[in-house]
Amino acid sequence: MSLMPSTSYFAAFIFVIGAIYFLLVLSPLTYSRSLLKKKSAGIVRRPQDSCKGRGLLSVIGALMYLTSSRPDIVHATCVCTRYQAHPTKKHLKEVKKIFRYLRGTVNMGLWYTKDSGFEITGFSDADYVGCKDTFKSTSGGAQFLGEKLMSWSSKKQDCTLLSTAKSEYVSLSACCAQVLWMRTQLTDYGYHFDKIPIYCDSKSAIAISCNPVQHSRMKHIAVRYHFIKEHVEKGTIKLYFVKTDYQLTDIFTKALPVDRFNYLVSRLGMCSLCSQELDRLAMLQ
After folding, report:
1. Exposure of 85 by Cβ count < 10 A (0-12 exposed, 13-18 middle, 19+ buried)?
2. Which one, out of 105, 135, 140, 237, has a CA that is 20 to 30 A from the CA of 160?
3. Which SUPFAM superfamilies does this one have (predicted)?
């Protein structure tokens, strides 16, 4: 089974905003470039003029719609939404780059194979101080059902934290909440799970989550994030360390080099779903 956005909708929107004339790129977000707010020169007074008559809000709204079936553009879209109130030419350039990437990957989508199991698996990651304007970190999460990607997220954290371990701890709590929701839904269908694995690339965050004692250095973190300790103690979830090279949620927290980006896209289960590829995949089922 495949999951892909409406190709006709996407093709029509590309034509409306003039993206049909854009040059293609291999990734939706520029690597090693940080977007910042500019309160002086460069602010676009009428951002609708730069998108061929379409307002920037409607363009980003279209991208948000596509993120429901295109996890490869989730982080890039979420970054651009932070600057939609007062965009500069640099911000508009990044929005256009997402469409340049999408124009070359119109047929990309998620492919769900049969008989891949119903085991829940979670991946959690955080980019410390990912937002250079507010100095807040970015949380990323991915939840799998067997080998099928079911849920994904990229979100700026709502609190400023003092270390990488603490930002990873907050991201772990968010991932745990989503995993528990999936567990509750599957319980209604007769599936019961315990010791659900969640993978994180921070040994310090795992140690904090497994420590039932509330340390004084963690008192500035909101209470709602500490519920993960209870579920670790009960055995509902189990935390595992994974090396950064195998951390699938890197794609939801930061801009990546093209090779690394394409590797993670394939690991998430995305592939080209043109008619020839669909026929080939159907033969393998």
Report:
1. exposed
2. 237
3. DNA/RNA polymerases
Q: Which helix (H) or strand (E) holds 170?
A: helix 164-187
231: CB partners within 8 A, 6+ apart: 176, 180, 237
CATH code of the domain occupying 111-250: 3.30.420.10
Average pLDDT of the chain is 81
Domain parsing of the chain, residue ranges = 2-106, 111-250
Kind of pairing, strands 196-200 and 237-241? parallel
Cβ atoms within 10 Å of 6's Cβ, excluding its own: 12
Element (H, E) at 238: strand 237-241
The single-letter code of the amino acid at 209 is S
What is the per-residue pLDDT across 130-179, written as a single tens digit (0 to 9) for each? 787 788 899 999 999 988 999 999 998 888 888 888 899 899 999 999 99
The sign of the dihedral angle between the CA atoms of 15, 21, 25, 29 is negative
Contacts of 153 (CB under 8 A, 6+ apart): 74, 139, 140, 141, 142, 174, 178, 252
